[in-house]
Design a protein that fits this description.
Elements: H1 2-6, H2 13-26, H3 38-45, H4 49-61, E1 65-67, E2 73-75, H5 85-90, E3 98-100, H6 114-118, H7 136-145, E4 152-156, H8 159-170, E5 176-181, H9 185-193, E6 197-204, E7 207-208, H10 210-217, E8 223-226, H11 240-252, E9 260-265, E10 286-291, H12 293-296, E11 303-307, H13 309-319, H14 328-339, H15 341-367, E12 380-383, H16 387-396, E13 399-403, E14 415-418, H17 427-438
Parallel strand pairs: 3-13, 5-6, 5-8, 8-9, 9-10
Antiparallel strand pairs: 1-2, 4-11, 6-7, 10-11, 12-14, 13-14
Helix pairs in contact: 2-4, 2-16, 3-4, 4-16, 8-9, 8-13, 10-11, 15-17, 16-17
Length: 440
């Protein structure tokens, strides 16, 4: 156990936790390794057992170690092996005073379900296999609110269901797929599952960087996957001007003339930015996905896929051989939520609150001497000197954030994702902690 003590440069609770975190990051300590007892390490370091105990609590809050009672404390194993690989890296196995790691909406800002549930009996048809997959009212409402004229729309079980179906029906093993970098970890897991090769393109404050996008198109990709608004994890939204530029580059490309664009508009209803789609310029090549988990409730599992009829029909036909359709009962609930004036007002209010929280947290970070750019929707992307140290530093303050590495392709840079949409109070304290963690 002396080797553990030798790796600790500072003998405060934070310094001890940081030293252990470095050993885990470097691989000197691996999942399942038993740590020294609190008393033994306290003797080796010449500190009180309470100091080591506080360090152990910080490491447990950061998800790095776990206690097994009298058996001791151990380096935590990857949680829930059934999860896809990058999902595991985001999994939470502990509680925090303020959890800003999950990328989920504030439950208090979701519309109330009770009134919608009380009105669906007239539309709830649970007895037939032969009805149309989509209830007509919801289908027509989607078409009216689509960001550009669309030939065909079908309802899906959320955004990832639509993206999964599109990838499985349109791409082939070995195809190259242009993706944003960073991007949503399940996208990378899906590409890996289908044997697809990601071609990463970095973002600026307006979306994919055109010069990098041009180079990516030279690889002859089969598809481009992007998030037009409230990008997860950065909070970036695609500007109309940048969308036009990317569409023009695609239209002129000779190496990507058959590439399909797949857009995931997962937070549109709570986005403060304009509705935008490349389909406004290249409608025959764009599949647009719209979902309502962030705005109306993650467990609704409702989304819609729209685009050229030839492409959408392929997805519908394949889906009929599996789940068949999205529950018409759930579709009826969503229709009520999208049309009831009270529910609409609740979602509109949530949009304004999320935008305000973004601005307040960023202002608090700047006031504490740090730097952070406001995002759109619920997430923001914080640059840090060292990801692991930042996570441990924030855990010591009772704050949990998501590590940046699972979101990144290639060599990961120093970032963490912060779900600022969950910061209801203590804004100044949160801003100060984030500013301090950035240089930890």
């Amino acid at each position: 156990m002396k080797s553990v003590a030798l790796a600790i440069e500072e003998r405060s609770p934070q310094g001890i936790a940081t030293g252990i975190a470095r050993l885990i990051t470097s691989g000197d300590l691996v999942a399942g390794d038993r740590l020294p007892t609190v008393r033994d390490l306290a003797v080796d370091l010449g500190v009180s057992p309470a100091t080591v105990s506080h360090a152990w609590q910080t490491l447990a809050s950061a998800g790095l170690i776990t206690s097994r009672g009298r058996s001791g404390s151990f380096v935590r194993s990857a949680p829930r092996e059934w999860l896809p690989r990058r999902y595991r890296d985001l999994g939470a196995s502990h509680e925090a005073r303020l959890d800003l790691s999950r990328g989920t909406p504030d439950p208090d800002l979701l519309p109330v379900l009770g009134p919608a549930l009380s009105r669906i009996s007239a539309r709830a048809d649970t007895q037939s296999y032969q009805q149309l997959p989509d209830i007509p009212e919801l289908h027509d409402l989607m078409r009216e609110s689509w960001p550009s004229p669309v030939e065909s729309i079908t309802v899906t079980n959320g955004a990832l269901d639509a993206i999964d179906r599109a990838l499985s029906t349109i791409t082939r093993f070995g195809d190259r797929i242009v993706v944003e970098n960073p991007t949503f970890p399940p996208f990378m897991d899906l590409l890996e599952q289908y044997g697809l090769e990601p071609v990463p393109v970095h973002l600026d404050e307006q979306g994919m960087i055109p010069t990098e996008f041009t180079r990516a198109l030279a690889s002859s990709p089969a598809m481009v996957v992007l998030q037009p608004r409230a990008h997860n994890p950065t909070g970036v939204s695609l500007s109309p001007a940048r969308a036009h530029e990317l569409a023009s580059l695609l239209r002129r490309s000779r190496t990507a003339e058959n590439a399909v664009v797949l857009e995931d508009d997962h937070s549109g209803a709570i986005s403060s930015k304009p509705d935008v789609s490349l389909a406004s310029w290249i409608p025959d090549r764009v599949l647009h996905v719209r979902s309502f988990s962030k705005s109306h409730g993650p467990d609704l599992r409702i989304g819609a896929l729209g685009g050229p009829r030839a492409l959408v029909d392929r997805v519908v036909a394949r889906r009929l051989l599996g789940p068949g359709w999205t529950s018409r009962l759930m579709q009826a609930i969503l229709y009520e939520l999208l049309t009831d004036p009270d529910s609409v007002a609740q979602v509109d209010a949530a949009r304004d609150i999320y935008q305000r929280r973004q601005g307040e947290v960023v202002a608090a970070v700047h006031a504490a001497g740090g730097s952070m750019r406001a995002g759109d929707g619920v997430n923001a992307w914080l640059r840090v000197s060292d990801e692991r140290s930042a996570i441990v530093h924030l855990a010591a303050a009772g704050i949990r954030v998501a590590p940046g590495a699972p979101f990144q392709l290639g060599e990961p840079g120093g970032f963490v994702r912060v779900t600022v949409g969950m910061v209801r109070e203590e804004v100044a304290a949160v801003g100060a902690a984030l500013a301090s963690a950035a240089t930890a």
